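[step 3/7] inverse_fold.run input=structure_tokens len=159
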């Protein structure tokens, strides 16, 4: 029961991130929004980092920093810049592509053997994403506007 409570809390935190960035855009710059996201996330994880930093081998510290920059810092600034020009729901949908990109990067760059069960899970998630994105287009005969597509690419760059 506690696991479900934590899961639901995490869903609200993750899901509200994009709309909060959109609201924050009314009084803050993109850099300020990204900085607040990184600072608050860092503050939450600081106790865990202090406890676990001794377990990271010294020769791997550079990789941890590189991973932090490309996995958290850069995406936070790219998302904040993009959210100013595109719909927050589109940003959320594009963020849903992360598992697909992780699997592709794992296979292409690291020659990782991904279990079919994980690939099936990602494909089910991707199917849901495509259904949620394109079903309104099919049912209501709406078109997908390419307006501000270059800002959508800011989100895609971090992959």
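[step 3/7] decode complete -> sequence:
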């Amino acid at each position: 029961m506690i696991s479900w409570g934590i899961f639901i809390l995490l869903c609200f935190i993750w899901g509200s991130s994009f709309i909060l960035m959109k609201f924050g855009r009314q009084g803050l710059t993109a850099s300020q929004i990204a900085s607040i996201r990184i600072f608050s996330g860092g503050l939450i994880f600081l106790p865990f980092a202090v406890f676990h930093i001794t377990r990271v081998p010294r020769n791997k510290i550079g990789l941890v920093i590189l991973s932090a920059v490309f996995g958290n810092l850069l995406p936070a600034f790219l998302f904040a810049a993009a959210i100013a020009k595109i719909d927050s729901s589109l940003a959320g949908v594009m963020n849903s592509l992360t598992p697909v990109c992780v699997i592709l990067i794992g296979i292409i760059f690291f020659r990782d053997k991904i279990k079919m069960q994980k690939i099936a899970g990602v494909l089910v998630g991707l199917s849901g994403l495509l259904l949620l994105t394109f079903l309104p287009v099919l049912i209501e005969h709406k078109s997908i506007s390419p307006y501000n597509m270059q800002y959508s690419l800011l989100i895609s760059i971090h992959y």
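[step 4/7] annotate
The radius of gyration is 18 Å.
The chain has a mean pLDDT of 82.
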